[in-house]
Amino acid sequence: MGALISSQTPPLTERNLGDQTGKVFAVTGATSGNGLRLVRILYQHNGKVYLAARNASKAQQVIEDMKRDFPESRGQLHFLHLELSDLSTIKGSVEEFLSKESQLHVLWNNAGVMVPPQGSKTQQGYELQLGTNNLGPFPLIRLLYPALAKTAAVSPANTVRVVWVSSSAVSLAPKPAVDFSNMDYHVMKEPGQNTQGAKQSLDPGVAATELQRTMPWWMSMLVKLVGQKPEIGAYIQLCAGLQFDLDCHKPDTWIVPPGKRAPGRKDLFDAALGHKYWEWNEEQIRPYL
Ligand SMILES: NC(=O)c1ccc[n+]([C@@H]2O[C@H](COP(=O)([O-])OP(=O)(O)OC[C@H]3O[C@@H](n4cnc5c(N)ncnc54)[C@H](OP(=O)(O)O)[C@@H]3O)[C@@H](O)[C@H]2O)c1
After folding, report:
1. Which end of the chain has fewer CB atoms within 10 angstroms, the N or the C?
2. For the CA of 35, the nearest atom of ligand 1
3. What is the pLDDT of residues 176-209, one digit of tens each?
4. Per UniProt, what is one Pfam family of this protein (predicted)?
């Protein structure tokens, strides 16, 4: 719970972020909550941002609002259609991006659902939370990799990044954290235990956003009671993506509120389990590359 609420000052905010002119960013799930706040800050500081989202009209409204709020910005905002719960569409989204851009400085894997009703599935039949939050980003990263690598080759070391937004709920994960005999979730997990994943890089804290739309009422109420402003989650993402001196290779750690490196639960960083989980994902996405 200590990581959930923090009154410390975030290291990077809209007040001290430097000029982002010339940088290209992509934020998944940019139409609400933390992702929307993150895009606002990037655009305010002249970043070129792709709002990778599934709802075009919602994204266009967000873009219009931001352009109105920051008329001085020299940045750019672009909608990029992305439906993470349908693996067959992701290649097309990446092709669309690559037809416009050859560089990508930071990709934030922010989009997600939490505690969807039991039985919710992706187009390919995966459990919805696993499919959206974990599996969907795999082809995205894989197909964007050449642009990321090309950008990294001409950028300062460790500044081109892929950020994974996870959750403090991983602390409730079973041991071992991934149950390979139950990847289709035929045995239902308790809330918090369905955050399958071997690589988590940040905990955005807790905030009342649209994420609670599928949660049981009591969980939603609890989040409203203890949650912070979604801006705090955006600041943590800002730190993970853009803090210049962040040591991205420090083992067994992630970024927690308000934007500091901290050790995670040791077994969640188990290299063998992580490798096996990575391979499982690679296997699932192979037909869609
Ligand atoms: N808020 C919290 O307390 C909290 C706690 C722990 C972790 N997190 C994590 O933080 C991240 C951001 O959450 P949030 O609180 O900002 O929630 P949010 O307001 O619900 O935003 C989630 C975004 O993900 C998008 N999304 C959902 N399914 C998608 C799909 N299949 N394809 C593409 N986009 C999809 C949503 O798009 P639509 O608008 O079209 O639905 C929305 O823009 C998530 O990964 C979440 O798991 C949040």
Report:
1. N
2. 16
3. 999 999 887 777 554 444 333 233 479 999 999 9
4. adh_short
Q: Summarize the confidence of residues 272-280 as an average pLDDT.
A: 94
Residue with CA closest to ligand 1 atom 25:
29
List beta partners, residue 228: 207
The answer, yes or no, to whether any atom of ligand 1 lies below 6 A from the CB of 129, is no
Q: Name the residue of 1, 62, 113, 201 to mutate for ligand 1: max ligand atoms within 8 A of Cβ.
A: 113
Kindly report, residue by residue over 244-254, the tens digit of the pLDDT. Answer: 888 888 889 99
Q: What pLDDT is attached to residue 140?
A: 98
Could you tell me the distance, in angstroms and rounded to a whole number, from the CA of residue 154 to the centre of ligand 1? 32
Contacts of 51 (CB under 8 A, 6+ apart): 27, 30, 31, 39, 59, 62, 63, 77, 78, 79, 80
d(CA 94, CA 52): 10
